[in-house]
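Working notes for the structural subgroup meeting. M.R. asked for a predicted model of this chain before we commit to crystallization trials. I am recording the input and output together here so anyone reviewing the notebook later can reproduce the run.

Input as submitted:
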Amino acid sequence: MAVTTENLKRWIEQSNIDYVTYFIKAWIPFNAWYNSHFPALDGERAKINATKNNANPVRNGISAYLENDGQEGETFRSYLSALHHALQNHILTSETGIISFHEIIKEKNPKNLVNNETLNGITYYLKREDSGKLGVINQIQVFLKNSTGTTFFNYQHTEFDLEHLKLSATTTANFGALSAKQQENIRVFFLQLIPIITTNAIETNLQTTPKNFYKCDSYHFKRDTVDSYCRGNYVCKSLIETLYQLRNILFHGELIPSDGIQPIYKNGYFLLKMILEKVK
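Returned structure, recorded in token form:
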């Protein structure tokens, strides 16, 4: 019996490795590790954040791979580069936005108050009150007082929305009635209180003294020149968060099956496998 083209095509397809399944198999022991390592923390998000931000075998292991000039380090950096390349070529979106090393590090802005800054006789007071969820606020307040201490601008809103502030035209907060300089001062102070700070894990401004990047094939990932305990700080945060978001869209049924996802989950799987070697 002659082998048909269709028969050959189907057997070739059967020979392909489903890396989504392998990613799940690697995630299960990783899940078991952070549950056992952080038993006092409640919920997966808290444990993932602790893995990203505190000294532990996973965080230390990733940093060690990045700093390693030998074969292990080169292999890890190559998988990291390939994952970044695959994510650029096939856009995936989770509940936190696009899954990309350019904007995956999202943290609460620790600055939430401009406390009575006085410029040209005008005192500015701005305060952001956060809710429990990253990026969601309970209230933003903007007060302006004149030289006699009288409040002449009083704005409050439940969303961090600069355009809403600019369009305010109430009896207590008429943005258009302010001088151009006062409007600009408010805009500058307001943006200082943005709820989420986003960090790009890809370094574009390369420096060698001190070295601020890891060369990963044709890409350069950010190396922390300040944190001497974890030079791979930015990569640790971005990689763990990326793997977690890849897990979420898969487990929550948000992932649309296609050929483009295989390179993403392939390199995610290999990176997870190397990370698991550090927690045996």
